[in-house]
Amino acid sequence: MTPALRPMARSLPLALPLMLLAAAAQAHTGAGHAGGFVSGFSHPILGWDHVVAMVAVGLWGAVLGKPAIWILPVVFPLVMAFGAALGILGVPLPAVETGIALSGVVLGLAVALAVRAPLPIAAVVVGVFAIFHGHAHGTELPAAANPLAYGVGFVLGTGLLHMAGIALGLLTAKPAGRIVVRLAGGLIAVVGGAFLAGIA
């Protein structure tokens, strides 16, 4: 671990529980989001379905190591933007909420089981789930008072969650840290499963 990342890794065990204790409201009510940057920034951070999936992307990238540690957190927002465009254009996508819930389950299990998928397969898995997350936001985005500011805030909030996952994932450098990371993956899978049960 580089010296620059050590302080972030040390503070993450405190930050992650706070993120997971955020308001447990379903993030996609279909009502849209008025506002701009602050609304966009807070939306992924205050929705557990987003928190668990986006932290899991960073965690899994860290488990897989370089270059996945940086590629997966870049793939997710890029493909999410494509999914958002589909939502804005009104292109239907079935089972969006199910796909979002499954992202927590699958990505959490990938971390908990330390799945060593080849990078192209890992990127495809992350990308598929990113489409669901993006589509959900794309259908809400036109209702925002300032869609550009909302989008910028949302991307920054998403990046913060990815970085939190990466920082926590860096604990895998030590045996005890690997246990913490696997437990975090299991917790993410459980939260995703709870969302999935609520949708079914």
Helix percent band: over 70%
Radius of gyration: 16 Å
- Number of helices, counting only DSSP H or I runs of 4 residues or more: 8
Distance N to C terminus: 42 Å
- State the secondary-structure class: mainly alpha
**In sequence order, what are the helices and strands, one letter per element?**
HHHHHHHH
Count of extended strands: 0
Signal peptide: 1-27
Organism: Pseudooceanicola marinus
Pfam families: HupE_UreJ
Protein name: HupE / UreJ protein
What does this structure look like?
This is HupE / UreJ protein. It comes from Pseudooceanicola marinus. InterPro entries: HupE_UreJ. The chain has 200 residues and is mainly α. It is built from eight helices and no strands. Helix content is 75%, strand content 0%. The protein is globular. The protein has one domain. About 12% of the residues have low confidence.
